[in-house]
Design a protein that fits this description.
The protein is of the alpha/beta class. It folds into two domains: 49 residues, no CATH class; 324 residues, Peptidase S8/S53 domain (Rossmann fold). The chain has ten helices and 13 strands. Strands 4, 5, 6, 7, 8, 9, 10 and 11 form an eight-stranded parallel sheet that branches. Strands 2-1-3 form a three-stranded antiparallel sheet. A two-stranded antiparallel ribbon has the order 12-13. Strand 6, helix 5 and strand 7 form a beta-alpha-beta unit. Helix 5 packs parallel to helix 8. It is elongated. It starts with a strand and ends in an 8-residue tail after the last helix.
């Protein structure tokens, strides 16, 4: 039922006995008019006219200017958040504002990557659009210290998609802008890392309170689970502690999901384009769970709902390190891949947790099921090996009106 107010008390609604119709009476003194009408034996009711207001807060549209200076232009750049092939961030943001935890406030998301440009480090600047983002203690397993600094840009780009400061008049927006980011550096400055180091990062994040672990990384197709037992064990350890681990399906266009995403304890994510199509690089096959915007070219498929535009779609825009020496901050055009898709899912998972839809501390399995049950079906009806359960839908996943199944 919609809440009501008596803001139109200068109008009185009158119902008469023996009739289902009602009449309205304009008056300058509603109280006196109602009292007079109620004295009549013919009157069944006389009440002030009240006005209902929709319970929805409406879509939240922040002021971030994108690549320009005009407020609100972020939406023209971030098709992945607002476009027909996007995840519907504005409505998801409104749901979390209504729940009192805007942008997944308080949920810890560990980003296992090349680090994050969250503070100045030598010649490497801090991203100004992460200045308002909350960071909790992280760790650098490459340099063996407590400061997971980024000199590559990949980890900063991923982190910005998850939790870039939003409505601050700078750059772009983050899907779970209120989340707490735990930066864990497991990839070196070339973007490479070995299984034992990544396994250490997974265990460290799980032990330090991460609810979600984002791994925008993959091994090549020759790597099987038997080759990375330490990482498989670490992921199982995190899952047992209630942590949702999200990883990339891989960028080779292979008909098999890469590890670690292929592991049963990992939510695997493929990539889609601005046209709502499977991306040509995205690995498919058994174990693929969901897809999310990754940018790039469409795969050569004739899928229902794939609106091929005749030219490549845009990539995923975010503020990160740019330049030969990675000594500047900008919004490059070059980032595409399942690495870019994964943070959309991790961020939506954080929004689900913060929303309280699944309770105060939902299990990893419950979060995963909610993500899959509310995804937008793409390709053949139902689950398929190209799109999994479909395109992540942050608005539906956080909508209290959508039943929890």
């Amino acid at each position: 039922m919609l809440p009501a107010s008596a803001s139109s008390a200068a109008t009185v609604v009158v119902g008469y006995k023996g009739s289902t119709a009602f009449h309205t009476v304009r008056t300058t003194n509603a109280v006196a008019t109602i009292a007079r009408l109620k004295r009549s034996a013919r009157v069944r009711y006389a009440v002030p006219n009240v006005v209902a207001h929709a319970t929805s807060t409406g879509a939240y549209l922040p002021d971030d200017p994108g690549r320009g200076v005009k407020p609100g232009r972020w939406a023209a750049v971030q098709w992945n958040f607002t476009g027909p092939a996007g995840v519907d961030a504005p409505d998801a943001w409104a749901h979390l504002i209504a729940a009192g935890r805007p942008g997944a406030k308080g949920v810890k998301v560990a980003v296992l990557d090349t680090g994050v440009a969250y503070r100045r480090f030598g010649r490497t600047p801090a991203s100004p659009d992460l200045a308002g983002t909350r960071f909790v203690a992280g760790h650098d397993f490459i340099g063996h210290d407590d400061y997971a600094n980024d000199r590559n840009g990949h980890g900063t780009h991923v982190t910005s998609t998850i939790a870039e400061t939003t409505n601050n008049g700078i750059g772009l927006t983050g899907l779970a802008y209120g989340a707490s980011i735990m930066p864990v550096k497991v990839l070196d400055d070339l973007g490479e890392g070995d299984a034992p180091v990544i396994a250490q990062g997974v265990r460290w994040a799980a032990d330090h309170g991460a609810k979600i672990i984002n791994m925008s990384l993959e091994f090549d197709s020759t790597v099987t689970r038997d080759v990375i037992p330490e990482l498989i064990d670490a992921i199982a350890y995190a899952r047992a502690k209630g942590v949702l681990v999200v990883a990339a399906s891989g960028n080779e266009g292979d008909p098999a999901v890469a590890y670690p995403a292929r592991n049963d304890n990992v939510l695997s994510v493929g990539g889609t384009t601005e046209h709502g199509c499977l991306a040509d690089y995205s690995n498919t096959g058994h174990g693929l769970d969901l897809v999310a915007p990754g940018g790039g070219d469409d795969a050569e498929l004739t899928d229902p709902g794939c609106a091929y535009g005749g030219k490549p779609g845009r990539n995923i825009a975010q503020m990160t390190l740019i330049g030969v020496h990675k000594d500047k901050i900008g919004i490059p055009h070059s980032y595409e891949g399942t690495s870019m898709a994964v943070p959309h899912v991790s961020a939506t998972a954080a929004l689900i947790v913060a929303s309280g839809i699944l309770g105060a501390d939902p299990s990893a399995a419950a979060i995963e099921h909610r993500l899959e049950a509310t995804a937008r079906d793409l390709g053949p009806r139902g689950y398929d090996k190209s799109y999994g359960w479909g395109l992540i839908n942050a608005a539906a996943a956080t909508d209290p009106a959508v039943p929890v199944t």
